[in-house]
Input
Amino acid sequence: MGIVFSDLAVSADGFAAGLNQREEEPFGDVDQSWLTGWMFDAYDENKAEVDAIVESGATIMGRNMFGPVRGEWDRDWRGWWGPNPPYHNAVFVLTHYPQDPIEMEGGTTFHFVTDGIEAALERARAEAGEQGISVAGGAGTVNQFLAAGLLDELRLHITPSIVGAGERVFDGVPPQRLERVSVRATSLVTHITYRPLRP
Amino acid sequence: MGIVFSDLAVSADGFAAGLNQREEEPFGDVDQSWLTGWMFDAYDENKAEVDAIVESGATIMGRNMFGPVRGEWDRDWRGWWGPNPPYHNAVFVLTHYPQDPIEMEGGTTFHFVTDGIEAALERARAEAGEQGISVAGGAGTVNQFLAAGLLDELRLHITPSIVGAGERVFDGVPPQRLERVSVRATSLVTHITYRPLRP
Output
């Protein structure tokens, strides 16, 4: 069975997004390049980590990572990623509002799951088979999985910046020790992988 | 002129101490070994970083790092470190309550500064000469120096743990980019040094 993992690009103070995430600013009140510049400006140097983000058999994400629509799905929204999203597998979007699946180019289909993270994980497992499952974000969703003991591996990509407010990794997660699996520093980012230590 | 630096041992979520710091538990409601175990249990491996913490010409610390006494100095308190503290220089303790200096063995003298961080820094500079000045903590004091643009180097020693609440590095510090100067991982801790990027 594949592992359940998350990749989060965060500031030195742990924020994966600023306040006021919205359609024009998916990362809210923060210069997005502070958090994700390393993926684009230094792709060659960070290729292993960038490519690993989408190496999964299925994907789970929070609704706010999928898009800016809140409440009922009252408009046609197909994600931030254009007609051919980078996931190329089944993406389970956590939401309180049911909606029919949306099939995209390249093998990505967005499914909308209204019965919580365990249900989403079960559906993702059925889809992923022996492959890993990516909990793509945002931080709130990753924190839910961490708090529930459902995440096997957290890959933080720590950028040299202070964001100060927004969506923060570890918020609401019970105190615990972690195992630090690996550290790799490149010019723009420090990659640290942790595994929760289950009792 | 020496640099102004801080060393903070923090959890993965940035806490340098838990809630409820008190005489019996200087680090509050957290197992102190989670944050500082690497300094003692793996000293050989982390010798360079541990030794560098006290390589300064003068030291500045917040009152809560100096001790558990709050309000007036209504009891004899000489720090947590016994008769011969590890600083071996002039230590300027930030407080609102004046008190005469306390001379310890080994060259450490605690001075009590009631007129703020700039005044403490000025006195520390006069004492340190060409040597560096250590802002020893806690996190609240380090954050004050960061927010005021008075810190040249922040050395985080990130331990694999989630603490969840307490004194957190970067709280209240304005959003900004940092320069990441160095990263070194040993078995129990990840050392990351940042420099604020002044405009």
Chain A has a mean pLDDT of 96. Residues 11 and 188 of chain A are 11 Å apart (CA to CA). Residues 1-7+54-69+84-153+194-199 of chain A form a domain with the Dihydrofolate Reductase, subunit A fold (CATH 3.40.430.10).
